[in-house]
């Protein structure tokens, strides 16, 4: 399980498909990829496909929050793909309380999510 870096990713944009239950090591690996983009380009755009995600290990949740806070100003846009109500809620909350411009897309709208992210 874990995550897959999507082939549509580029030097400024990263996309991940999350599957199953994420471990702390998997979340750390994702943050390392994001840190590399931010170090190289100054900011990043992120797509996260939550369609097959079941959750995160408790330790991973806390560490992810701590790692993410320092990057809030470095992520320009975030597209969240998922069909669950909490996916839409997460995106709306993120858009309202962080400087990140975030949008939610249904699973069938992945191409539109990539187009918006790159625009």
Outline the structure in words.
This protein is of the alpha/beta class and 119 residues long. Helix content is 44%, strand content 33%. The chain has four helices and five strands; from the N terminus they run ββαβαβαβα. It has helices spanning 24-41, 58-69, 85-97, 110-118, and strands spanning 2-5, 13-22, 44-56, 75-81, 101-105. It has a five-stranded mixed β-sheet, with helices on both faces. Helix 1 (24-41) packs parallel to helix 2. The radius of gyration is 13 Å and the shape is globular. 27% of the residues are buried.
SSE pattern, N- to C-terminal: EEHEHEHEH
Strand segment tally: 5
Q: Sheet bearing the most strands, described? A: 5 strands, mixed
Outline the low-pLDDT stretches: none
Mean pLDDT reading: 91
Give the helix proportion (percent range): 40-55%
């Amino acid at each position: 399980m874990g995550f897959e870096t999507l082939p549509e990713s580029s030097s400024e944009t990263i996309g991940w498909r999350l599957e199953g239950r994420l471990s702390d090591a998997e979340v750390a690996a994702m943050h390392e990829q994001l840190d590399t983009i931010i170090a190289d380009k100054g900011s990043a755009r992120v797509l996260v496909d939550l369609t097959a995600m079941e959750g995160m290990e408790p330790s991973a949740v806390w560490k992810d929050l701590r790692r993410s806070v320092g990057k809030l100003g470095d992520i320009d846009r975030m597209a969240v793909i998922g069909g669950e109500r909490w996916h839409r809620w997460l995106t709306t909350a993120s858009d309202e309380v962080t400087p990140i411009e975030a949008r939610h897309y249904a699973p069938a709208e992945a191409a539109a999510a990539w187009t918006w992210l790159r625009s």
